[in-house]
Amino acid sequence: MTTEEPTLHYAPRSRATATRVLLEELGAPHDLNVLNIRKGAHKAPAFLAINPLGKVPALSHGDTILTESVAIALYLGDLFSEAGLTPLPGDPRRGAYLRWMVFYAASFEPALMDKMCAHVPPANECAYGTFDQVIELLANQLGQAPYILGDEITVADIQWGATLEWALAFKAIPELPVFRDYATRVTSRASFQRVFKDEVRLGAEHEAAAA
Ligand SMILES: N[C@@H](CCC(=O)N[C@@H](CS)C(=O)NCC(=O)O)C(=O)O
């Protein structure tokens, strides 16, 4: 097992925002490699060697390189489980945890992107059925408790909360009270507020550097 601190390859106001917040929530010592997407740093050879797709987030940890937000969240949640945010094997919430994390990447994100691009694949052939089914399923789950797995916040809420906040802001999902309340509950946490504030600074710096 490596004793090195993980490095998050990150750009502000991107999917890497949730990963940065998660590292904070987990109290995980880490390095931040800040990429200026506006200047194309994510398509430079140094970063393409880490993620050939040139997308953030990515995580380096010793010899391990991870891409994909959800894989990174699962990895970090296990690595820093002492923070108490991870339903580990043996926890009755473990199955639901894996289900909602994989559902996020395998069904929710594709459904959201298809919707935003006005692409309607045949329901019986695509992984998620229909956008409306995905929304109904998610609204039903979030309507049952303050957090996606129940009364306590977990790693899964950092991922879902960050994305639902963004999706509501961009009107990519219906403005249902259950989504609004949940996104506010999660993103009003000090960790999110700290990162959002720093991203205003970074965003301005990056824009100025790219101008
Ligand atoms: N499936 C990937 C998606 C990563 C992704 O699309 N990242 C965006 C930022 S939100 C990106 O790096 N876009 C820059 C580009 O493709 O040029 C994940 O969940 O990590």
Kindly summarize this structure in a few lines.
The protein is of the alpha+beta class and 211 residues long.
Task: State the helical fraction.
Answer: 40-55%
| DSSP strand count | 4
Q: Note the beta-strand portion.
A: 5-15%
Spatial arrangement of strands, main beta sheet: 2-1-3-4
From the alpha-carbon coordinates, what is the Rg to the nearest angstrom? Answer: 17 Å
Q: What is the CATH C level class of the largest domain, in words? A: Mainly Alpha
Order of helices and strands: EHEHEEHHHHHH
Our measurement of the CA-to-CA distance between the termini, rounded to an integer number of angstroms, reads 43 Å
Compute the number of structural domains. Answer: 2
Q: What's the shape?
A: globular
CATH topology of the largest domain: Glutathione S-transferase Yfyf (Class Pi), Chain A, domain 2
Distinct helical segment count: 8
Biggest sheet descriptor: 4 strands, mixed
Structural class: alpha+beta
Mean pLDDT: 97
> What is the CATH-assigned architecture of the largest domain?
Up-down Bundle
Bound molecules: glutathione
Uncertain runs with pLDDT below 50, 5 residues or more? none
